[in-house]
Design brief:
The structure is a homodimer of 294-residue chains. The first copy, chain A, has a single domain, classed as Farnesyl Diphosphate Synthase. In chain A, a hairpin with a 2-residue loop joins strand 1 and strand 2. In chain A, helix 4 packs antiparallel against helix 9. Chain A has 14 helices and two strands, in the order H-H-H-H-E-E-H-H-H-H-H-H-H-H-H-H. The radius of gyration of chain A is 18 Å and the shape is globular. In chain A, strands 1-2 form a two-stranded antiparallel ribbon. Chains A and B meet through helix 2, helix 6, helix 7 and helix 8 of A and helix 2, helix 6, helix 7 and helix 8 of B.
Chain lengths: 294, 294
């Protein structure tokens, strides 16, 4: 990875994670619920969504502080989706990032409520963000709800469940991933454009960049499931195949998936060139997806 | 019930319910998920929360249209909470309002997602409400998230689960109900005050009215569990006792609970007198709780 990107990511990850323990400090929340919410929020991960938001703000010449509450809310929603996805009635996963999943530690009912609580509190946090004006806040609430809700992530998850044990084609797979994982990759880029109040055309170009990036990210995940190391993945190698999941690798083969990954990264870089952002954090982030090992 | 209140409630219920099938009409949502969300939204009920919002707006001299999106969002959140409460890992209920619960019809994973989808879409709807200004909208999003989230309903639900199979005292029971059911009764009254832009003191008085009303509503539910008819309740008579639930009746006896109900109704009426609203829909609504049979 490019050294500048590496330093930026490490720096912003540390800054972001230092905020997490303070999230519910002044809120009267029953202890077990608070503990369950923080357990999954603090379970690690690359924090790729918050970093995308910060990097986009930075590239647009705006201070990252302006996106902190939005990034925290976004990560809370990402985290809730993982807690609910791991439930026995869904993917029934016992490990996530090498740690026992929420329901294995706190029980199923608390895990459901911890997810519900994180999802709801995300909107509370953004609606109350003192750094940005109310008109911008209401746009962010709207965009995040649309990205995470039935038209976005939740709908993609429903289609993904229905596609299990069924062979689907590439278009169907892309439609699922555009919503299930893509919308929460697209949101931070769009949110930064809204916070920075860029013009409509520039915002649309950034959204296209983020859509290609989201697909590249998912294809990379599918490849890593086979080529990665268990320790870095936090789950067994080849678990997608063991679970008969539809992935880019199962549809296109490993080489085909690698070609598709390169296409999506190139398409994302082409968008950045249109707005003069071809040399910087956003292009480095796209290029990094080509060669990441975890 | 007072004839004017009866007509108002029937009228607003019909108006409100006519909006439900149109909610996701222009949204690209995968069919089974949309069907599952609408199934529970359209399953009936008294629509007491939307009606409280409309009645408060009406009492403040403001047209009910201004509260329609907020009332729909509120009912979506109330509905999601019922879907998740009924899940096997929570109360494991198979019947709700005389109909099979969401997970019995659509399966557990879809029921979880339908709940998540309704919760998220509620904020999307309110954030996009064309009838009210953006500053008011952001206040409504904040208040609703606070009422429904870890400090409110979700926290109350967590404490309620932890109180099962355990004897708790009256203060603990009231603390649970103030959050689990009370916050979503208080919200519509507070929301109407925000939409009507009343002064701080009047808003605080209305909030106190709503808090007493919320407790009265819950105490009435507990009494009805014993004295109501199965058909009107939509569940077996005495199911709280069968499930060893902590209720006002189990703590105070039937007569004690009836006294407490009367106290709370009187306290709510006393608040209304302070702001000259002692004769009207809001006082009729409180008095109706004294004698309701379902």
């Amino acid at each position: 990875m490019n050294q500048m990107l590496k330093a930026y990511m490490a720096n912003k990850k540390a800054w972001f994670e230092a905020e997490l323990p303070m999230l519910f400090q002044n809120a009267a929340i029953t202890p077990k619920l608070k503990q369950a919410m923080l357990y999954s929020l603090e379970a690690g991960g690359k924090r790729i969504r918050p970093i995308l938001l910060f990097a986009t703000l930075h590239s647009l010449g705006k201070a990252e502080d302006n996106g902190l509450s939005t990034a925290l809310g976004l990560e809370m929603i990402h985290t809730y989706s993982l807690i609910h996805d791991d439930l026995p009635a869904m993917d029934n996963d016992r490990l996530r990032r090498g740690k026992p999943t929420n329901h294995c530690v706190f029980g199923e009912s608390t895990a459901i409520l911890a997810g519900d609580g994180l999802l709801t509190a995300a909107f509370q946090l953004i609606a109350n963000d003192p750094f940005i004006d109310e008109n911008t806040r209401i746009k962010l609430v709207y965009l995040l709800a649309k990205a995470a809700g039935p038209e976005g992530m939740v709908g993609g998850q429903q289609d993904d469940l229905q596609a299990e044990e069924k062979k689907i084609n590439l278009n169907e797979l892309m439609s699922i991933h555009k919503r299930k994982t893509g919308r929460l990759i697209r949101f931070p880029v769009e949110a930064a454009a809204v916070i920075a109040k860029v013009d409509k055309k520039k915002k649309q170009t950034l959204v296209l960049y983020a859509e290609h990036l989201g697909l590249a990210f998912q294809i990379g995940d599918d490849i890593l499931d086979l080529t990665g190391e268990e320790k870095a993945l936090g789950k067994p190698v080849g678990s997608d195949i063991a679970n008969h999941k539809n992935t880019y690798v199962s549809l296109l083969g490993t080489n085909g998936a690698k070609e598709k990954l390169e296409q999506e990264v190139n398409a994302s870089l082409a968008e950045l060139r249109k707005i003069g952002l071809e040399n910087g954090l956003l292009s480095d982030l796209a290029s990094y997806l080509l060669h990441r090992t975890y």
